[in-house]
Amino acid sequence: MWKKEWPKHSVLAIAIIATWLKTYLTYKTSFSISIDNVLQEFILFINPLSMLLFVYGIALFFKSEKARNRYILAIALISSIILYANVAFYRFFSDFITLPVLFQTDNFGDLGSSASESVFITDLIYFTDVILILLAMKFIRIIPASSLNLAVQRKAYFIISAAVLFFNLGLAEMERPQLLTRGFDREMLVKNIGMYNYHLYDMYVQSKSQAQRALANGSELVEVNNYIRANQPDPSKDMFGAAEGRNLIVVTLESLQSFTINGEMGGEPITPFLSELTKDEDTIYFPNFYHQTGLGKTSDSEFLVENSLYPLSGGAVFFTHSGNTFNSMAESLGNKGYHTSVQHANTKSFWNRDIMYQSLGIDQFFDIESYTIGEGDAVNWGMKDIPFMEQSVEHMADLPQPFYTRLLTLTNHHPFYLDEEDKLIDEFDSNSGTVNRYFQTARYLDESVKVLFEELKEQGLYENSVIVMYGDHYGISENHNEAMAQYLGKEITPYESAQLQKVPFFVHIPGFGEGYVDEEISGQIDIRPTVMHLLGVDSEQDIQFGGDLFSEEHEEFVAFRDGRFITDKHVYAGNVCYDIETGIETDKAACEPSIEPAMTELEYSESIINGDLLRFYDEKNGQLILSEDELKKLDKEQQRLKEDTQN
Ligand code: GP9
Ligand code: MN
């Protein structure tokens, strides 16, 4: 009859190849995935294969042809639905689906209405493989099985599948080190491990955090709350409300380290504008301010600014806990009538910002789509900082006031490439191209801040604003110690390494007139309370680990995310205690009293994030939201504690 004779597993082979090719063609036609080189294209091409081999391969365990075919068809259908759901979602949101987006109830309205606008009858083309498989099943007649042992065949098949998976992961690791620990960007994940593996990864990340959340309860917050209440400094009387009602502009100075401020290279200032600002009468500059970020880099710094909580010890909290309840600075200022926004000329899904910003209560996100990138306006990671500043101020001119807007710069980012015409100083001369170029991009970033100030004045926004600027994290990693030692003229010991984690922090209040340099030891965790109090917004009941830097009671103590810490007297790094002034090793006992508190703080913060504990806290009245049972349990515990102390 019609049927032709084919080898036994022809349908399976056709299914794998058809779905594989369809997936690749869908990548190329229905998403905008940027490809920079042949290797990336190759990874994109092979990345659907590993998962398809495994999942379709299960068919080999079915004895009857009918059951096997049914299974293959079901897999083709499910994978097509997954892929197609992403296509339709992408049309509307320019992003791939992630589980939290399905659980964020705010999104449902959008999802429903967008679904109908994003679905067309011609989309049946995304199910081509299913149709092909059906045809194959109809027209192919299987010739009797070969004499080879079935178990051996299956074993060989799955060994090859595993090899494909590891080959893919190896290439991805080469292309993007630490991709799976840090997450970075959904586009990057799909590009490197493929759509199907990405969903598995997403499920793993989300279910891990959901499991921790489910096990947590409000009573865990009691101890944390007591600790925080005991350690919160009172706001400074002089500075509280000094900038009440003003717009707040927070600028993230990408990868800018403090050694560039008032620093020179080849006789030229690296950051002339910012250096001048340290002496300005309207500016308070903090030279002993440290970053506290972990693997989430820029996003961790944003997390610190918004929440005054420590980011996570592993992974990027923007990725892993975007579904949590937060009490962000944006939300608090929003409640005071501020319009809140972030401006960043990059893909919105980078660091999962589009989702996380909703949880942080940020009203508007000006992502790359909000910018016009003309010819010559992009370098390195994307839009150059100068046109970025110009267009961001244009956005501000249209915002309702007062506004809180955060600007995330980008040009001074590894690998620090710059167009010839933007190089305002020479390269440094060392064995590290990264370090050599860093000086030039830092110089360019400085120039862009100058442009920001000019544009704000031009638009009449300057006088009524406060401009807060901070470096997000180091730009030069320890891999470049040799070149840094050459620049600094001293060996990079663990003490020096810790000191190199200083990033600049500026609070610029036009018309203030009493600017000064504040030498106290401080960190990114302190930004939230400092800025909120400056704007006259109370944060005393909030769950936050930082303190108001203008307060006389502020404790000079900074814990790094990795457990190193700095006090006014010591630097604790690599399990060694150093004198902060001299950098000389001292008796560890001198650091001992702070080791425990540093760990405690980091652990408390981690437990808040992992348990999503802020859902049990009402910051309006400082009350814990506990169930009857939890309250009873707590009462009992307190009773027991009382009895213990009495005995
Ligand atoms: C990307 C920008 C830079 O959007 O935030 O990221 P980083 O690598 O510095 O975290
Ligand atoms: Mn950064």
Core attributes:
2 domains; 12% strand; eight-stranded mixed sheet; five-stranded antiparallel sheet; single chain; 24 helices; globular; alpha/beta; binds manganese (II) ion; 47% helix; Alkaline Phosphatase, subunit A; binds (2R)-2,3-dihydroxypropyl phosphate; 647 residues
CATH superfamily annotation of the largest domain: Alkaline Phosphatase, subunit A
Q: How many structurally independent domains? A: 2
Helix content: 40-55%
Strand content: 5-15%
Spatial sequence of strands, sheet with the most strands = 9-8-12-3-13-14-6-15
Give the C-alpha Rg: 28 Å
What structural class is derived from the secondary structure elements?
alpha/beta
Q: What is the CATH topology descriptor of the largest domain?
A: Alkaline Phosphatase, subunit A
CATH architecture field of the largest domain: 3-Layer(aba) Sandwich
Quantity of strands, as a count: 23
Secondary structure tally, helices: 24
Unique bound compounds: (2R)-2,3-dihydroxypropyl phosphate, manganese (II) ion
**Terminus-to-terminus distance:** 94 Å
Rough shape?
Answer: globular
CATH class of the largest domain: Alpha Beta
Name the average pLDDT: 92
Which spans of ≥5 residues are poorly predicted at pLDDT below 50? none
Major pleated sheet: 8 strands, mixed
